[in-house]
Amino acid sequence: MTVVAKSSLIGKRIPKMDAPEKAAGKTRYVQDINLPGQLIGKILRTDRVHARIVSIDTAAAKALPGVYAVLTAADIPKRGLGVNKDNPPLKGDKVRTIRDEIAAVAAETEEIALEALKLIKVVYEDLPILADPRQSTQPGAPVIQDAKPDNIAMTFDYAHGDVAQGEKESDVVVESEFYLHYVTHCCMGVSGIIADFEPTSGNLTLYSNTQVPFLHKREFSEVLGMDPGRIRIIQPPIGGGFGSKLDIYPFEPIAVYLAKAARRPVKLVFTREEEFLASPTRQPALCRLRSGAKKDGTLTFRAVDILLDNGGYTSWGATIPFVMMQTFSSLYRVPHCLFHTKAVYSNNPYAGSFRGYGNLQATFTVEQHMDMLAEKLGLDPLAIRMKNAQESGEVTGQGMVFTSCGFKECLTTAASRSDFARKFTDYAQQQSKPGNKKRGIGLAAMIHVGGGAKIYPSDGCGTILKMDDFGHVTIMTGASEIGQGSETVLAQLVCEELGLPLDAVSVVNNDTEVTPWDVGVHASRTTFIAGNSAIGAARKAKDKILNAAAKVTNMTADQLEMRGGFVVRAADGEMVMPLPKLLRSLHFSDKAELVMTTHYYEPSSVHQDKKFMGNVSATYAWAAQICEIEVDTDTGIVTLEKVTAAHDVGRVLNRMGLEGQIEGGIVMGQGYALTEDLMVRQGKVLNPGFRDYKLVTAPEIPEMDISFIESMDGEGPQGAKGVGEAPAICMAAAIANAIHNATGVRLTRLPFSPENVYRALVTAKGGVVE
Amino acid sequence: MVERYLAPTTLDEALKALAAGDATIVAGGTDVMPQSQAGRFKLGRTLVNIRRVAGLQGGAKEGDEIRLGALTTISQLREDAFIAKTLPVLAEAADHFASVQIRNMGTLGGNIGNASPAGDTLVPLLVLDAVVELRSAKGMRRLRLDEFFTGPGKTKRTPDELITNIFVPAPKPGFVARFAKFGTRPALDISAVSVGIAGIVKDGKISNVRVAYGAVAPTPVRGRAAEAALEGKTLDAATLAAAAKAAQGEVKPISDRRATAWYRREMIHNLVKKVLADVAHG
Amino acid sequence: MSLTVEIRFTLNGSPTRAAVPPGLTALAMLRDIVGLTGTKYGCGEGECGACTILVDGLSVNSCLMFAVECDGRAITTVEGLAADPANDRLRDAFVEEGGVQCGFCTPGMIVQSKYLLSQHPHPSHEQIRRGLEGNLCRCTGYKKIIEAVAKAAEGTP
What we know:
The complex is a heterotrimer.
Chain A: H1 19-23, E1 39-45, E2 51-57, H2 59-63, E3 67-72, E4 94-95, E5 101-107, H3 110-119, E6 121-126, E7 152-160, H4 163-168, E8 172-180, E9 192-198, E10 203-208, H5 213-224, E11 231-234, H6 251-262, E12 266-269, H7 272-278, E13 285-293, E14 299-311, H8 321-330, E15 336-345, H9 359-377, H10 381-388, H11 407-418, H12 420-430, E16 437-449, E17 461-467, E18 473-477, H13 486-498, E19 505-508, H14 526-553, E20 560-563, E21 566-569, E22 575-578, H15 579-587, E23 596-601, E24 620-632, E25 637-648, H16 655-675, E26 680-681, E27 684-685, E28 703-709, H17 726-729, H18 731-743, H19 754-764
Parallel strand pairs in A: 1-12, 10-11, 14-15, 18-19, 25-28
Antiparallel strand pairs in A: 1-5, 2-4, 2-6, 3-5, 7-15, 8-13, 9-10, 9-12, 13-14, 16-24, 17-18, 17-23, 20-21, 21-22, 24-25, 26-27
Helix pairs in contact in A: 8-9, 9-10, 9-18, 13-14, 16-18
Chain B: E1 4-6, H1 11-19, E2 23-26, H2 32-37, E3 46-49, E4 59-62, E5 65-69, H3 74-79, H4 81-86, H5 88-95, H6 100-105, H7 108-114, H8 122-127, E6 131-136, E7 139-144, E8 149-151, E9 154-155, E10 162-169, E11 175-181, E12 194-202, E13 205-214, E14 221-222, H9 224-230, E15 233-234, H10 237-250, H11 261-280
Parallel strand pairs in B: 1-3, 2-3
Antiparallel strand pairs in B: 4-5, 5-10, 6-7, 6-10, 8-9, 11-12, 12-13, 13-14, 13-15
Chain C: E1 5-11, E2 14-20, H1 26-34, E3 52-55, E4 58-61, E5 74-76, H2 78-83, H3 88-96, H4 106-119, H5 125-131, H6 143-153
Parallel strand pairs in C: 1-5
Antiparallel strand pairs in C: 1-2, 3-4, 3-5
Helix pairs in contact in C: 3-6
């Protein structure tokens, strides 16, 4: 007899399926694609921060040989983009931010397009600049958007319990103001799109980097006034997303309008400088937080008031309170919570979504307050967190339901692996000793959605699965791939169901004409949602195969199994028949059947009510991260030495892919805390390039010790949760706590650049700073 | 608009090309290219690529001097055994210069001709008493490096001249030189401030002191006050403190996106102290 | 008609000719004239390393290099490395160690790693980190890229 052994890919180190082509330089990103007869599109951006447009003269640009189209606001429908529909692709009446698009050109070459831009003459009448969001709602402040004369773009209010009562019950209260700065995504591949419009058919094909192709189709149809059925979005491999491609931005419809006007395909790709100036940022925030606790460390209340600088237009940045409030209300058990945020217009750049979606900002404040409360109470940082940490079975004030929760294990694992308790005490004692190098260790923890986030009526994902005559499976998934490795995880999950090796599976994920609907790659949702969807389709295929095999073998389907490319006897693994043979017998029989299945998975989460109550995600990810640092008190340079991270991931699916996400997120969080700073002064961006916008480089990365806590989520695919955003979230808070441990100085303003740290140290010692 | 491209292989050809006027000299291109691409610098009518000119590479001892060819790349400065032995401070500065790829392209002459206040080889060359050799079709002249720079990106080089060599006096016994660049990365940062110190240390005393600073003025500058505070002194705690104070007092930096003036002065103070401590403790 | 310069060079082992404007970058020549798109534009100012190529065996930023300077030189791009089985060990190491995520920095990383290993056949971790200081990656946090280079060096004679 031939026995086929059971094998599994779950938990193994699986190389990313598209890596060989990427490493050979064969992968063609949108920047690398050229359509026959294509023109190059370029956008004229304003050099003013706030000004009325008196006139735009495009005559000379239009007359330049090689120019096929020149557009201004007058040439296109007046429809706004974004969350408040307040961002017209081309601005006609006035400009509100330095990145504003005022004209666009399509020309034969980039050189001609740039020359044409120079020929466009714009006359402005400057308006008073509103650069400080604290001034936005003051009487007499310049109005940025006429439709919102109070300059308030959006507000979010949430409450549970009664904070006045909580305050009464408190033995200690701390209150602080935190400032969180601008940073930006810095995807290595700059933004770009190719629009190919065929006027006779009305078909529009877009080669796009979007993270949300199906929502994009709807957005495009609305702004362009087109039948969505005529819009096809092809997503070539994407050079990084991190949330930057979650909204529709002006350059995208501009490319379409240019293609329509020129009747030729138009490729529009940013320069790096343009990418810094004109792609979204992380949402900056000014946050006032008041927290209380009882003598034993039990939290009593939190009151939060946040001011968000919305910039000139409203993109997803304004909606981060949606995620922030979870951390305030539900990271720990807090009986009373009051949360208020206001996003106000200004003449500054506008923010979009960015990995972590407000949670880096919220966690920065909450996790510093946990240390501050602990210090006041004479407790250690771990103890106060353990005292208040959520556990499985908890339903929070906001209605979040924690089914699988490895939070406490994350805390204790990270603490013991980093020798936190001993080092925390030692370093604190060494603060006053001589020497200019001070070491510190800091802890921070987080909660984030791990099972999607139902912010649209559906948070689902569709899968189409087909098998060929040779046993090869193709999965067509709605899920988008931005480098995170979703295609490999989806293939693994399907292999697990169908007992196949990885090379028996291909994944198609890049064409709205082929793939079924998905809400998009965001909210750490793809492994969980698209994974469950792929499993659903695979199980249907398996049913079909085993039922067919049952008929041929005189066994019942439940006596059979799929292993290693064979149908086998479940009891002992004895080979029954090779899978390809079965598939061919189905195909070429009288019934002539192919194995093709579909599945749409919708998670059990709920769309929150108007008070933001409800279980928004099917499950939640937890983590604790501990940072060990050295502060050079002569320079203010903070060196990140080591990060010990423990993440509740539900279950490890692809160990290597998971490590890659955590490591990348840790370093991104390191940059947020220490090196990255998009300097916006009076509405202008001072450092639109990598020379002065400093990403972390290879020599600067810390030692990383990463542990996975497997809480085996009941609804997760093979028990897994989504963790794409989680690793960046704790870093700034943990580093702030470590700096305090090293120096005794509490830093509440990001970034911790050498000068900012040095100033704080000098000030704390009573020195004078200029 | 470039109308002519020349890639001379001899110095004479190169100088002839420059004599014709409106020429842009390119060696590594690491600065000319991005500046011209961004429209911040306009290429001349003739582009003169001097990369192939023979005889301007590497370092060698010539009499009492060490000659460094202007086309010596930063990587060569960093890795050349002769330079490492005779002028380790230059190798050290080269190690803190940009990135591997830029070090492989960028040249010593280019870094000098570029005249950035933050140029990483300039501060060590200043404390080495470097002299720039300029040649044109009309002849040759030598200028002291501390008199060569006239402003950011500006030097006394005339458009028909080429920086051909850099000469520094061969170090005497007891000569020490140190360079420190402020930054959070090993090399890739544009320095917010940098400090170079050189002198002859004998019996615990330092003489022939040279101090220079980067990124605190429109050009890299000598630190005369700090030099005076050190000259002939024993490198004890009081001297270190006095020199650091003098340094802090004499620099007049500006505030820009990389640092405020105040912070730059603080860092000059602390870096001078640190570098001197290194010198004092060998 | 603006000036173009006729240049001849070796590209990935093959003799190549191109007519290039004197102000053009080597990067633009490779991508737009020759049609090899493996070498990426990431910043155009030599800060990110996505455009790294080898010129006579030395790694350089092709965005900072004048295309005319390629004349008479041996140019190697990521496509050239991929075509030579001798480099499979390096490429496999990037794949197997998880050094590739979005992949946009990968061609530059691979070419720079090739150069690094030519300089230091048995590099220390510190040498690898310094050797990659001019190559930005936003996805991986560099750790797996460093490990990939270390793995590629293992077993090298």
